[in-house]
Amino acid sequence: MAIKGTDIVKKLPEGGKKNCRECGLPTCFAFAMKLASGGIAIDKCPYISPEVRIELEDALSPPIKPVTIGAGANILTVGDEQVLYRHEKTFIHQPGMAVLISDDEPAEAVDAKIKKLKELQFHWVGKVLKADMLALRHASGDRSAYAALVKKVLPVTDCPLMLISDDTEVLLDAHRLCADRKPLLYPVTAQNLGKIIGSVKNRPAVVAVKAAGVESLVPLTSRLKEAGLEDILLDPGSRNLQSAIRDQTLIRRSALKQVFRPLGYPTVAFPCFMTGDRQREILLASTFIIKYAGIIVLSDIDEHSLLPLLVQRLNIYTDPRIPMSMEEKVYPINNPDASSPVLITTNWALTYFIVSSEIESSKVPSWLCVKEAGGLGVLTAWAAGKFSGDNIAPFIKKCSIESKVNHRRLIIPGKVARIRHELTEALPDWDIIVGPREANEIPSYLPDLVKSWKN
After folding, report:
1. Which CATH number applies to 67-316?
2. Residues 6+ apart with CB under 8 A from 77
3. Residue 1 pLDDT greater than 70, yes or no
4. Are 219 and 193 in contact (CB under 8 A)?
5. Phi, then psi, of 48 in degrees rounded to 5
6. Is the CB of residue 288 less than 8 Å from the CB of residue 244?
7. CATH number among 1.10.15.40, 3.40.640.10, 3.40.50.300, 3.30.565.10, domain 5-60
8. What's the half-sphere exposure (Cβ side, CA atoms, 13 Å) at 37?
9. What local confidence, expressed as pLDDT, does residue 118 receive?
């Protein structure tokens, strides 16, 4: 459990009774409460001793440390999770999907994987879904071949990189080539820990610790933390489904429920090393999205396997407290012109995609006005007072639809026909038309409506 403000105040100067107000707050108790909620920095109190500062910083840090891989605009942040189950609150940072490239693969295969990473992007509920990073593996035994692979990748993509080699010297040589990209180094083990610490202290990197079991991770992460290195990922070494779920769950529970700091880091999972069957690999990856990997490494990607994983990831990591919604604006469908009909609906993503797809099916060029309604459906938004004449009218006036069409006809959803009179009063220049009650009636409704206008 996170430290409470009532516990913090006891550690402040004079037992929380100094009340100097130099932090900008009237009392030490107010400072402690705000510090506990993350509303103020610990540095605002100039009188906290170094020992207490260290203690409080540790107590206030997230139970699972956020870790950022990469540099510049294209970075990947994992960790910082707060709950075991998304319905308790929400999951925060989606797991990174990495594509494995080995230095013993043919050049054509390497080029194909890089191309797929860059081009396989899917537009979904107003978002762009794609894989996140490349995992470069030293498998040939040839040091120069691995260096050549790293050099080949660097200029053609700015995505985050994971460097994989059991040869520590090869791993560190590759790190030197791309240290400015803050790559992820794997594996860090009991055998090479000293060399890794010495190198990473001088060049930025994230390290992924590998051990034979969860318990064996603890001394490795503890030593890294003592050396001042806390950008860490964990691999407990599990390579079958049963042990993987067990280990991932144990790590998450230890970090969140026991606040056990040596396991308070995101994890990395390798379905690519767990099976040679592509279909089974995708199923394993799907499991790791739920339980609880920070990075998932795949042997390859294609549109048929990647899209389902990305949609699942989006669904799991969408805040269940906040409906998925679309941007409030006018959406052109089927290349409309100035004479095309104008429809309106709410910005709940499901409503938008159902309505827009039915309009597309009608083959009628149309304008779809999407009104901000808190991500609610039409009836719910009306009941909540977010889809009524009073708030639709200002939206119609400001959304630029009046400059896009040469008529003044607005089609409203049939289920909220009762707002027609409100809109007629609020938009006297517009003819308010009550449309179908159900979206699946649109493909037959729109052509007949447009035909009647022409007659």
Report:
1. 3.20.20.20
2. 66, 67, 68, 69, 93
3. no
4. no
5. -70, 130
6. yes
7. 1.10.15.40
8. 6
9. 94
- Find out whether 135 and 101 touch, Cβ atoms under 8 Å: yes
Structure tokens at 169: 């010297």
CATH fold, domain 329-454, is Rossmann fold (3.40.50)
Residues 6+ apart with CB under 8 A from 37: 5
297/283 Cα distance (integer angstroms): 13
Q: For the sheet with 366-371, list strands across it.
A: 329-333, 366-371, 342-346, 409-412, 431-434
**Smallest Cα–Cα separation from 338: which of 407, 285, 395?**
407
3-state helix, strand, coil in the chain (%, to 5): 45, 15, 40
How many residues appear in the chain?
A: 455
Phi, then psi, of 104 in degrees rounded to 5 = -100, 5
Residue scoring higher pLDDT (375 or 234): 234
Estimate to the nearest angstrom the gap between the alpha carbon of 386 and the chain centroid: 28
Q: Say what percent of the chain tops pLDDT 70.
A: 99
Which pLDDT does position 2 carry in this prediction? Answer: 64
Ranges of CATH 3.40.50.11600 domains, the chain = 329-454
- Mean pLDDT value of segment 343-365: 94
For the chain, counts of helices (H) and of strands (E): 17, 17
Name the residue type at position 329: K
Amino acid identity, position 179: A
Residue 106 has pLDDT above 90, yes or no: yes
- What are the start-end ranges of the E strands in 347-408? 366-371
Query: Quick check: helix, strand or coil at residue 136?
Result: strand
- Torsion angles phi and psi, residue 344, rounded to 5: -135, 145
pTM for the structure as a whole: 0.79
> If 0-12 CB within 10 Å is exposed, 13-18 middle and 19+ buried, where does residue 451 land?
exposed
Average pLDDT in the chain:
93
**177: helix, coil or strand?**
helix
Residue with the larger pLDDT of the pair 14 and 193: 193
Q: Is 406 exposed, middle or buried (0-12, 13-18, 19+ CB in 10 A)?
A: exposed
Take residue 358 and report the two structure tokens written for it. 């039915």
Cα-Cα-Cα-Cα dihedral sign, residues 270, 272, 276, 282: positive
Count of CB atoms situated within 10 Å of the CB of 70: 21
pLDDT above 60 (res 271): yes
